[in-house]
Amino acid sequence: MLCGMPSATAGPVIEFLDVSYRVGETQVITGLNLQVARGETLILLGRSGSGKTTTLKLINRLVSPSAGEVRVNGALTAEGDVNRLRRGIGYVIQEVGLFPHFTVARNIGLVPKLERWPEERIRARVEELVKLVGLAPDLAARYPHQLSGGQRQRVGVARALAADPEILLMDEPFGALDPLTRDELQREFLTLQRRLNKTVVFVTHDLREALLLGSRIALMEAGKLLTVLAPVEFLKSSDPLVAAYVRAFGGGLEPVANRSTS
């Protein structure tokens, strides 16, 4: 059962309706129409500058569309309290963005504290999340600089989950990690998502990561959405750009359904 933001409709959790975004004379996003279903992990895939991160930021109103509408649970993001919107959406970035002068426990408990949860409830939630993301309990008293990159990224995921949001936005969260730690965290995230069933929008330029984690892959190029395909369909597509991605990553590609995650 999902907790967090209530569902206003039985429709998509996130919806882009003919959305465009420009900065000065630069068109960053053009005519975006996209729906994200409840409980799915939608991957935004594309090269640098394709509009992936901007698309992500349009969901929690870090930027606002120049044209069109973005809806979350049927409600226009342009209306209502932006802080309330953001507190209902977990946000994980590559650089993690932890407060260096806060302990791990205080970083994780930040949003619940802003939501005025009782202190005992915050402590219990922090303990639960430290365990959930695979951190040792004693790390809760440490500061970010005392942690490894993989540990800091786990704290970032825990902080995003703290108030039990329905939606998670993840912007290349594992991109800066070494290959072994990245593989470990990808698989831990996959297990976590199967357990929690969040609605996730995940930005990456790595096709292997997209195939491992995604229920659907939305390929973007030059600010436009080119196609949205299930992983199996993506690998079989005859679209020239899709085929170019598959070739670029070489052999051995397969969707998660055909992989062992043990």
Blueprint of the fold:
Elements: E1 14-23, E2 26-36, E3 41-45, H1 52-59, E4 67-72, E5 75-76, H2 82-87, E6 89-93, H3 104-108, H4 110-114, H5 119-132, H6 149-161, E7 167-171, H7 179-196, E8 199-204, H8 207-213, E9 216-221, E10 224-229, H9 231-236, H10 240-248
Helix pairs in contact: 5-6
Polypeptide structure, described:
The strands form 2 sheets. Strands 6-7-8-3-9-10 form a 6-stranded mixed β-sheet, with helices on both faces. Strands 2-1-4-5 form a 4-stranded antiparallel β-sheet, covered by helices on one side. The radius of gyration is 18 Å and the shape is globular. It is an alpha/beta fold. α5 (119-132) packs across α6. It is built from 10 helices and 10 strands.
Structure in a nutshell:
The protein is α/β, with parallel strands linked by helices. It contains ten helices and ten strands.
